[in-house]
Amino acid sequence: MFPEVEAVAPAVTAVFTTVLTEGPISRVALARRLDLSSAAVTKAARPLIEMGYLEELAATERTGPGAGRPASPLAIRADREFFVGVKITGDELIGVVCDLRAEVRTTAHRRLAVPQVDHVLIELGELVDELLDGPGDYRARTRRLGLAVSGDVDRSTGLVRYSPFLHWHDLPLQERVEKITGLTVTVENDVKALTTAEHWFGEGVGAESFALVTVGAGIGCGLVVNGRLVSGSHGVAGEIGHIGIDVNGPACHCGGRGCVEAIAGADAIVRQAQAAAGRPELRFDDAVALARAGDGPVGAVFARAGDAIGSGIAAVANLVGPSRIVVSGEGLAAYDLFEPHIRAGFQRQAFGAAADCPLSIRPLPFEEWARGAATVSIQALVAA
Amino acid sequence: MFPEVEAVAPAVTAVFTTVLTEGPISRVALARRLDLSSAAVTKAARPLIEMGYLEELAATERTGPGAGRPASPLAIRADREFFVGVKITGDELIGVVCDLRAEVRTTAHRRLAVPQVDHVLIELGELVDELLDGPGDYRARTRRLGLAVSGDVDRSTGLVRYSPFLHWHDLPLQERVEKITGLTVTVENDVKALTTAEHWFGEGVGAESFALVTVGAGIGCGLVVNGRLVSGSHGVAGEIGHIGIDVNGPACHCGGRGCVEAIAGADAIVRQAQAAAGRPELRFDDAVALARAGDGPVGAVFARAGDAIGSGIAAVANLVGPSRIVVSGEGLAAYDLFEPHIRAGFQRQAFGAAADCPLSIRPLPFEEWARGAATVSIQALVAA
DNA sequence: GCTCAATAATTTCCTTCGTCAAGTATTGAT
DNA sequence: ATCAATACTTGACGAAGGAAATTATTGAGC
């Protein structure tokens, strides 16, 4: 887990993780939260403080009725160690350096001419150097790098089995990048990485079950159930985009009919908007502009798309009953056009108490994907 | 956990559970399976053998190339203890006695005039006496009773929060029945109980993730993900029946549109068959008979229903990626009419590798629900 | 039959982890 | 100052597994 130590007691990991995700917290509170004796927490916290990962904050003011020694809450020393996160897309690398609390410290980009592996790896190496050797002097306190890639990724081996957008097959990405950068590398599917980030450091903190829906070119979904990420035994999970919500709907490239993505994916929206406006040269941004300007038929396309997404989200809520759902993604640049319809579709199809599940709908800051990648490498530190 | 003992080491529980669900298995194999040392397994198995829960089978014939001491596999002594399971429906009690391996030993029924609580409890008490004092002499070796009830049930407290079919609200069922029978009672939702049974003793054995779909008056679904039953944080989970698969479909009593249940629920099928045949007095069995006799329009109703169920199942596969799915339920009396269409709908809407998920479609023996209830009480023994 | 390699199970000793119970620390209220 | 309340620490202890040596039991090769 930590540089100096080989193995570490379960309680140490638990204490570290809980302080990390649930902020400054006293030893006694930790003991209650983790169902440990306070003695165990004291013992587990000591090495973490000695290694500089945790620190003791000044006593807080008393809360309750009267007396008692004030707690000295434990907090993460966020700048004890830094983590690089890079999201790899077909035409761009987005990189960040995060601290232990997954706060972004620096950002850098690289456009890619083609997603050809060797080319990407060279650019990636340069990007990492730029991030670590730029202002901030992160290099000395950075040992780990997380990569987020769309497609079928085996996190445990760091193998990219298949990435459709990048046209990569069975690429041992972890190994390759470790050789180039000298860092300890973790590779994860991009949606899972983002879900992890939200679960550990975002709105999903403390949730036993949680769903993240991304709206963009495709429509994806990451799931946390019983406190653990859902992986899917055939490598498929969270494919909310291919739930069929209209048996008479348009055919989808996947072979299905009326898939959410065939109605609300970016391509599908463009196609429908072109037809609705009678302008075959229309692009996504044009469609957004038209809808915002009050174009009825084009507005209806977004309405239908939002409703479809809402239906899909309701399917998630009905099936697994997450305690909250976050909807995000680059598609939500057109946030205002989607939101009411997502909510309407969700409310209509959510069954009983599932309709009470809180829905956060918000655009996604562009470096969020890279932050997700960094989060995965923070997790790797804890799990190691 | 066990009569004589208060607390029990984790390894003991693990060994017991694994032998229970994965049949006769040698200590060395157990050690590998559970990631324990063989010493630990030896130590854990001893008290279980002494208490009569496990026994050592005769050495098996060697398998491999040559030599080595033969294993003496550990097996459950299934008749060491018996468990009563009762499924409570609006008009009937179905009871069974099962052994430790959840094999049904005896069955008994009771018709109910009304689901009025006091009446049900009296009948239940009589049913249990009939089961335990009848042939087989189970009473002396039976300490536990499991109850399966539809609706919102809190297993940990044994409280029935709300059961729509029975018109029960906030009924402390566990407490009441423990008083009447003197047995240790566990109460669980019926679909979850059945899922548990299938996960421990049926086709779901060993699966990390697993789904059970029940087709009947309603359409339900139990989910096991990452080895654990999914409960849903708002008390809602597995509501496959209210996934919307047709935005232009019929309104559902839940307020949604085109829900699977509004197309493929028993009521919906009857209504559609009546319309298709132009005979408003038609009942479910008549519709089945007509479809089997080759009536085109009525056959189409079943086809549409099967397809809807298949789409819903595909949504489950796309979202959580179970390693197998079992489709069952009393609705599958019309098995032959549904099956091909369920498969077709599933194949069409399952995304990528999700389509490879094996689908078992089979009718449900009538006492299976009660067996599910008994299974839950077997689990309670292990967890206690 | 004897020896050896291979595998299964057990035993003994030991480490690790976390609890228990007692003690210290620090506060506000009386 | 004393006391109750709460937070934290300490040291002795015990339970649970692991490592390695030992015993058990087989088939193969001689």
From TrEMBL, chains A, B:
Which Gene3D superfamilies does this one have?
3.30.420.40, Winged helix-like DNA-binding domain superfamily/Winged helix DNA-binding domain
Q: Which CDD domains match?
A: ASKHA_ATPase_ROK_CYANR (cd24073)
PROSITE patterns (alphabetical): ROK
The UniProt entry, under InterPro entries, shows: ATPase_NBD (IPR043129), ROK (IPR000600), ROK_cs (IPR049874), WH-like_DNA-bd_sf (IPR036388), WH_DNA-bd_sf (IPR036390)
Give the family from UniProt: Belongs to the ROK (NagC/XylR) family.
Protein name, UniProt field: ROK family protein
UniProt source species: Paractinoplanes globisporus
